[in-house]
Amino acid sequence: MEPEQHAVSTAGWWISPPARRRRRGSQGKRKPIPVSDRKHERHPLDDGSEPADRLCHTLHKTVLGFTQEERVRQEIQEQLTPQSLRIAQERLAREKVLERQGSDPERKATLTLEFCHRDGSTRWLETIISGIRDDQGTLTGIYGVSRDVTERKKADEAIRASEARIKSISNNIPFSMIYQLVMKRDGTRKFTYFSDSVRELHGVSPEEAMADPGRIYGLVHEDDIRQLLQKEKEALQTLSTFKMEIRSKAPSGESRWLSLASTPTPMEDGSVRWDGIETVIDERKEAEASILEYSEKLRERNKELQCLYAVSELVRKEETTQEEILSAGASLIAQAYSYPQLTGCRILWEDREYKTENFARTAWMQTSDLRVRGNPIGKIEVCYLEPRPEKDEGPFLNEERQFLDGIAELLGKSYERRLATTEREKLILDLQNALQEVKTLTGMLPICASCKKIRNDQGYWEKIEQYISERSSVQFSHGICPECKKKLYPELDNSS
Fold first, then answer.
1. What pTM does this model have?
2. Given phi > 0 = left and psi -120 to 50 = alpha, else beta, which region is 193?
3. What whole-number distance in Å separates Cα of residue 209 and Cα of residue 198?
4. Which residues contact 329 (CB under 8 A, 6 or more apart)?
5. What's the rounded Cα separation, in Å, for the pair 62 and 40?
6. For residue 347, how many other CB atoms are within 10 A of its CB?
7. pLDDT, tens digit, for every residue of 350-361?
8. Which residues are CB-neighbours of 46 under 8 A, at least 6 positions away?
């Protein structure tokens, strides 16, 4: 970026007097500082000026490209861009109002306006203006010192555009905010930037948070603040990326989890700037807590899992009988409970009983029904031989209830599978036997029209009864029909 030019000059605004005035020199009530001291030249108000506001600038030719004489002859609308012209006119109008109200005659104002250059471009000039008054204190003009701030203005606009992009990005990161923290050599901290999402995350505006770091640090959970400061110190010493998860108070007053991550950048003055992001991680922490809790329960229920695995292995092996499964299952179930040395188990299956040696009916029982194809077939009974502390279901845990119901379902389903296998095998055997017994008659049968004998494949004539019996499972019984009876045995016919 090119260095700014700091050319200075006088700017005069004329407020039309009630009557024509003679040109005044430097005899007004307020006298400008000599040119040699202020590096500017006072432009007097002309008697012949039109009764309207007029702005004249005497600048170095290198700034705007015009000579002093050219600039003086230009009207104000030729010198300023339309927007800056409006700003200048509005400010002049306000100054007139203040003047009529008797405001401080020594007041000053600073204006930054965009001026037209000879080559068609524009330049930004910053002007500090003061009033010129006569011996009676009447305002007769305005003078000021201007400097070229074009490069600064461009830099400011670039910074604003960059900040707007950063702001847009940071404000649209879900449940997150961007921040910038400067840690000085003496250990003090100062936030220099917050995205607008700090309002939602911490209930304060960016300005409030930057003005007082305690508005942010004060929300950190008391058990985490010491570790936070220690980790910041360690990251500062090594200039390494800072990462930490902390608990903080939400605007609602509830505690929530935040993830902090920032990168250090050393500054010329010895301080360190940290550019960071803060993200709400409540959902992740809740998921982690749930996983941890579940893992703890799994470890506590490790014995139940071992029992389930062992019973599953028993029922998986087809060579294991149902009696062996139930007998071993009773012992495995008893060993899976919280107090295996005080636990007994009995499995009732139809009219049979399988139990551990120490089983007894006590006041501390837990049972689960056994069902096969929806019908009750027995039950599992677990007992504690001595009183134990109260839990969810008497002295038993909810997890132990789930475990026992799971074992009962496993035994019932495995027996259903065995029944289905047995029934399927029997059905297959029955079908095979039926297929062996079934013989079919197909094709055209040569039969005698008189005696009704059938000629077989070898060319011999066989009785129809013999032929069909040999080729199917049909058995014949013999009798005589009424017509044949009348024909063959008329003497036995009782119809006459």
1. 0.42
2. beta
3. 8
4. 311, 314, 347, 354, 407, 411
5. 15
6. 24
7. 989 999 999 999
8. 14, 23
